[in-house]
Prior knowledge:
By secondary structure, the protein is α/β, with parallel strands linked by helices. The chain has helices at residues 18-28, 39-51, and strands at residues 2-7, 30-35, 55-58.
Amino acid sequence: MFIDVHTHLWDRQFDADRDAVIRRTEEAGIGCIQVGTELATSEAACRLAESVKNFWATIGQHPTDTNNVFDVAAFE
Length: 76
């Protein structure tokens, strides 16, 4: 299995074709790690990873957004 280690399929730019992209990754046997960049996108990454086999998530804080630090304990 190949794994794309840095994806943002939760992003709204994929709203129109997210299901098709996911279907293609599944058909190709590719796993994806969804990368969150702040609280809302980390939550979106987790939701997507929970709903698709071979998708995983990381939660994170983008360096350009350090004034909005969130509590990682919310994900435990």
